[in-house]
Amino acid sequence: MDTHLTKSFHIPPASLQSIPYILLIIVVPLYDTFFVPFARRITGHESGISLLRRIGFGLFLATFSMVSAALLEKKRRDEALNHNKTLSIFWITPQFLIFGLSEMFTAVGLIEFFYKQSMKGMQAFLTAITYCSYSFGFYLSSILVSLVNKITSNGSSNGGWLHHNNLNQDRLDLFYWLMAVLSFLNFLSYLFWSNWYSHGSTKSQAESNTKENNPCGQGSKYFEDHNVP
Q1: Would the pTM of this model clear 0.70, i.e. be above it?
Q2: Residues of the chain where predicted confidence (pLDDT) is lower than 50
């Protein structure tokens, strides 16, 4: 793609990864400031919408990020092969914007979910597990590429969808469609397992335990009122 911003300045392609995180910096405060109070009036939920629905909506958006990537890659490849044209790199922005919104709902929702719903002392551990799952996913992606190449080659000398080191010869658009299908299946899997979850509140459970063990239900104030050293 054409990476020119001006005649003398090229946009480093790797810098496009910053788009979702810049979007997070802008959108998350807007989400908490405007959307949450508005949704709270309608749903009566403290977070506007439940944390599980927030995460699920983010996973659903991730599918459309892959759909956007597949459609753009098809257009880019057709323009390059049929008209010998190179699209501007800014065409790739929508898929990163959708992915950024997906991260806002999913990643931020997961962290909030762990801190509000997990047992005491498990919040940091579960958050670490989340980031470990990201690294594990990056590792599995390389296995997925090799597996797709092997299946789509069918023993031919032309190789698979991603065999060549040339995007005009490879079929990256088909690979993105496969990723869209896998993302949607991941969303369906999430719906299945999230229906099994029973909501709880660590804070309310702790308060309940305190009241059961404390006749006044006031913690240290009970001892203060009774002059217990």
Answers
A1: yes
A2: 201-229
Size of the chain in residues: 229
Q: CA dist 146 to 63, 70, 173, 175, Å?
A: 22, 19, 16, 12
Do the beta carbons of residue 117 and residue 51 sit within 8 Å?
yes
Q: CA-CA distance, 72 to 162, in Å (whole number)?
A: 17
Spacing of C-alpha 179 from chain mean position: 14
User: For the packed helices 123-153 and 172-194, what is the interaxial angle rounded to 10 degrees?
Assistant: 140
Both structure tokens of 144:
């997925």
Torsion, CA 152, CA 153, CA 158, CA 163, rounded to 10: 70
The predicted pLDDT at position 60 comes to 95
**pLDDT tens-digit readout, 133-178:** 888 888 888 899 889 988 888 766 667 888 887 888 889 999 999 9
Distance CA 56, CA 190 (A): 7
**DSSP one-letter code for 150:** H
Of the candidates 185, 150, 186, 2, the one whose C-alpha atom is nearest the C-alpha of residue 76 is 2
